[in-house]
Amino acid sequence: MVGCGRISSKHIGAIYSSSLKNKINIKAICDKKIAKAKIISKKYKINFYENMIKMAQEEDLDMISILTESGNHSKHFLELTKHVKYFVIEKPLSLKSKDALKIYNTAKKNGNKVFVVKQNRFNPSIKKLKEAINQGRFGKIFLGTARVRWSRDEKYYNLAKWRGKHDLDGGVIGNQASHHVDMLIWLIGEIKSVSALGKRALAKIESFDTVIANLKFKSGALGVLEATTATRPKDLEGSISILGSKGSVQIGGFSMNLVDTWQFSKMIKSDESIFKHSTMPKSVYGFGHLGFYESVLNSLNTKKVLHPQNAIHTVKVIEAINKSAILGGKTIYL
Asked: Please, are residues 129 and 123 in contact by the beta-carbon 8 Å criterion?
């Protein structure tokens, strides 16, 4: 595991859960801030390193999870690609489409298999929503919207120098709302064009902490994304809505985890128990990392889990939204 920042605890917690016990073992961890690695090493009794290449050379590893700054995912993957076959890379795959393509082309050349973390796809409520879409219950989907109203204060951004930087963090779109960009694409399809506005509402950072974006999907559907880390005094929601000619669904909560609205022109028996698929995680990270790693284990020889070629479009959209916001709302075609 490379990177011992805030998200690492979610990966470690999932791997050490009862359902994955004796199926995945963490052999070693690495962080350039060695004090972080030492804390985790002591707690879980695993080896720690300051240099990831040394770790890869000295340990007998099957897979490496890259949990570093988003802007460094490509760099770190390229440095490690020949040491192991399997990789987990945290979201987003990268912040630039050219870096995403480097990962894809290198993985294809070297025979690597890369799994990109999109844990919210494994939320029970989201899985039911995807199922309803696949069954055609919405009819013609004409609108998809997502809202990210989270709270990240100055203390959060000061925890690490890379936070809030254009090239390493990507702002609210590249970091926090990347989940919701991916979700809209996964549920509705690829995006044709975007136009966005952004501002630094409260945080004193290089990138935007607040962005609104209009989306046009290749299917003809429209989309709206509202994302901010300037919600005060605490997180409000992380939600998504899908509207079609025959049905409307809204999944709310902090991390797209609660079924708020579920209505169709033709209701079916299973709809009566739909609200039991809501979950109540204690944080915006949700419970999806466990489902993600379970799926990785079950899919090492298949293409069922998100691979680089599937994640490249999400990176292109993130890149386009940020570019449009910087240019004051200019429409960017993908």
From this structure: no
First to last CA, the chain: 34
Query: Measuring CA to CA, how many Å separate 166 from each of 112, 211, 295?
Result: 28, 14, 32
237 DSSP β-pair partners? 149
Within the chain, all domains assigned CATH 3.40.50.720 are found at: 8-119
Span(s) in the chain for CATH 3.30.360.10: 123-279+308-333
Name which CATH class applies to 123-279+308-333: alpha beta
Least confident of 15-29, 165-179, 216-230, 242-256: 15-29
**What phi, psi does 20 have (nearest 5°)?**
-110, 5
> 8-119, what's its fold?
Rossmann fold (3.40.50)
DSSP state of 271: G
Rounded Cα gap, residues 78 and 80, in angstroms: 6
Residue 18 banded pLDDT, cuts 50, 70, 90: confident
Confidence (pTM): 0.94
Distance of CA 164 to the CA centre of its chain: 17
How is residue 168 written in tokens?
């390493």
Model pLDDT for residues 47-73, shown as the tens digit of each residue: 999 999 999 999 999 999 999 999 999
Q: What average pLDDT is seen over the chain?
A: 94
pLDDT at 97 over 60: yes
3-state secondary structure 48-102: EECCHHHHHHHCCCCEEEECCCHHHHHHHHHHHCCCCCEEEECCCCCCCHHHHHH
Does residue 306 register a pLDDT over 60?
no
